[in-house]
Amino acid sequence: MSAEVTFWPSGKKVTVKRGTTLLDAARRANVLIQTRCGGKAACFMCKLTVLPGSELMPISDNERRKLAGLDGEGIRLGCQARVDGKVEVKVPLDPLKAAIARQLARQAEQDEPLW
Ligand code: FES
């Protein structure tokens, strides 16, 4: 059986086999998710926000322990969470892009005209 995963904010979709990790689905969809540990649940760089109504396989004890309560806020590790049906996830901004966006926002605040 297959499952459809949609990655936001790009809206890219991919159809994968049930049981595929979100990280593998992202790779197939050409969605960049940074990792450092190679999918061993050690770096936390693959954290994703799973939107309500998404169908994932039950969280493992290991992932739950690593997330330390964040799973209750919809956060999952892309390298551990496995799809079980239709899934929608929000991918955080690349850290470099996020830093540039923060700097530009700060600069825009400082450059506001006084009148
Ligand atoms: S890839 Fe490192 S924690 Fe998921």
Automatic annotation (TrEMBL):
Statement: the UniProt record of this protein carries the keyword Iron-sulfur: yes
Coiled coil (UniProt feature): none
Alphabetically ordered keywords of this record: 2Fe-2S, Iron, Iron-sulfur, Metal-binding
Entry-linked InterPro entries: 2Fe-2S_ferredoxin-like_sf, 2Fe-2S_ferredoxin-type, Adrenodoxin-like, Beta-grasp_dom_sf
Domain 2Fe-2S ferredoxin-type: 3-95
Domain of life the protein comes from: Bacteria
Cofactor: [2Fe-2S] cluster
Family: Belongs to the adrenodoxin/putidaredoxin family.
Name under which the protein is recorded: Uncharacterized 2Fe-2S/4Fe-4S cluster protein (DUF4445 family)
Organism: Paenibacillus harenae
